[in-house]
Amino acid sequence: MADRMLQFVRLDQHQPDKRPATARREDFAEIYQEFAPQAAAAQSSRCSQCGVPFCQVHCPLNNNIPDWLKLTAEGRLEEAYEVAAATNTFPEICGRICPQDRLCEGNCVIEKDFGSVTIGSVEKYITDTAWENGWVKAPKPRRELAQSVGIIGAGPGGLAAAERLRMRGYQVHVYDRYDRVGGLMIYGIPNFKLEKEVVLRRWKQFEEGGIQFHLNVAVGRDITLEELRVKHDAVLIATGVYKARDMAAPGIGLPGIVPALDYLTASNRAGLGENVPGMASGTMNAAGKRVVVIGGGDTAMDCVRTAVRQGATSVTCLYRRDKANMPGSMREVYNAEEEGVTFEWLGAPEAFLGDAAVTAVRAHRMHLGLPDATGRQQVQAIPGSSFDLPADLVIMALGFDPEDLPKAFNEPALPVTKWGTLKVDHRTMMTALPGVFAAGDIVRGASLVVWAIRDGRDAAETMHSYIEQKSAALAVAAE
Ligand code: FAD
């Protein structure tokens, strides 16, 4: 191994090429290119094969990263894929959109002195190669079971559970109010981070494996939770968080102010070839407009970069803290800067100006004060610091809260936390309703795809145990 691995002493860190910002601004294609095979092997060989691999420890899926890096360095790509896929339902998606700088790569021991191993890009390379070579198989079980499960939500949480349970042989039914599978991976995250074909091919494979999707079905509207509980042996709620946070300010209701997810969904639907009314009418289209995006998370970064690609005349991100305190991935901030986005740090909106439609955002400067109980510096407005940002389109990206699920599902016995997320027993992931489990953002609050996958896989295991115990108890009772 010694001559093949630990090459960080000799080889510099190298990411796959990124398309130039001038070209990226013109289309919605992904911005990172693929590694050439030799480059992937060389970059993998930089791994120091730590005894305690912090990359793995800090991966929510505990991906066996050192092993698949070593296999890639040795050119054993099919085995590398198998190791990567053993712990992750969608390694090609995590390779593209995980904030590796905060997870695996941010904890790589050679990061400080040599630059981390480019784990995310290698993961993407391995899995894309696996797809090209037909190594990725539909989840077909060896035997069929009579029991069935109902999964509400076809996002990464629900899909990860669906795949695991199908592999065990269950009859898996996934219900989603959207018309496509993927949740935020299809309608939230833009193409330039995750091309939709990557999600659509998984959907196709899951159907080939026998997972049954019931689309355009909103639980609470078209079918009740109670009906699903009667129909299935266990139910998983993986509905994500969709209630956009709002703010109170003069002029907030003016035309031209839109919620981030509506804006991104319109763009993603248009990218999928749909005729989206808001794109034609211009309400959801930044072309020719001065755009201000309010917020500093990943959603805000997706909005500013979408607006650039739609042909906005200017794009400004208004964020109340400074760059160092942005919640979004720093890599995405750099990408946005490269693509021409202007950042107004330490600025918060105080009013939206305009008569028939918004024409400007009035903002004031903020000062970062002492940390609060959570350790985060408090923001304070600086008196007399108002300034105006001209705007024809304002996109509000202030974060998301859970919808009122007990009300939507007409199930008052479904307990929620003070934040509105579902309360579960964290050992079993079961809610207070027997046989009803929950996973993903609806339990954690707005989080990451990788955490939703982890939750979905964990929930699948505990749902399986629950069904087995229930079946055993019924068998004893029948004797
Ligand atoms: P979701 O993906 O939200 O899926 C929930 C599904 O449930 C949806 O399909 C919805 O239609 C369905 N549903 C909801 N209610 C009902 C109902 N009553 N009946 C039937 N179906 C219902 N994470 C990353 O790791 N990297 C990123 O780069 C990243 N970028 C993001 C960009 C944006 C704009 C947003 C909004 C989020 C981003 N995230 C990112 C976060 C990530 O997308 C989520 O954490 C993840 O998708 C949560 O998965 P989930 O399965 O819990 O929920």
Summarize the structure.
Helix content is 36%, strand content 15%. The chain is built from 19 helices and 16 strands. The protein has helices at residues 21-24, 37-44, 54-57, 65-73, 77-87, 91-97, 111-114, 119-132, 156-167, 184-187, 196-208, 225-231, 260-271, 277-281, 298-310, 330-338, 405-408, 441-444, 449-478; strands at residues 148-152, 171-176, 212-215, 234-237, 243-244, 257-259, 290-294, 314-318, 342-344, 347-353, 360-371, 377-381, 387-390, 393-396, 400-401, 436-438.
Keywords:
479 residues, alpha/beta, Fumarate Reductase Iron-sulfur Protein, Chain B, domain 2, FAD/NAD(P)-binding domain, 5-stranded parallel beta sheet, 19 helices, binds flavin-adenine dinucleotide
Determine the CATH topology of the largest domain.
Answer: FAD/NAD(P)-binding domain
**Shape verdict:** globular
Number of strands: 16
- Hey, roughly how much beta strand do the residues contain? 15-25%
Figure out the total of helices.
Answer: 19
Distance between the termini: 58 Å
Could you give the topology of this structure?
Elements lengths: L20 H4 L12 H8 L9 H4 L7 H9 L3 H11 L3 H7 L13 H4 L4 H14 L15 E5 L3 H12 L3 E6 L7 H4 L8 H13 L3 E4 L9 H7 L2 E4 L5 E2 L12 E3 H12 L5 H5 L8 E5 L3 H13 L3 E5 L11 H9 L3 E3 L2 E7 L6 E12 L5 E5 L5 E4 L2 E4 L3 E2 L3 H4 L27 E3 L2 H4 L4 H30 L1
Parallel strand pairs: 1-2, 1-4, 2-3, 4-16, 6-14, 7-8, 7-14, 8-9
Antiparallel strand pairs: 5-15, 10-11, 11-12, 11-13
The structure holds flavin-adenine dinucleotide.
Flavin-adenine dinucleotide (FAD) binds next to helix 9, strand 2, helix 10, helix 13 and helix 15.
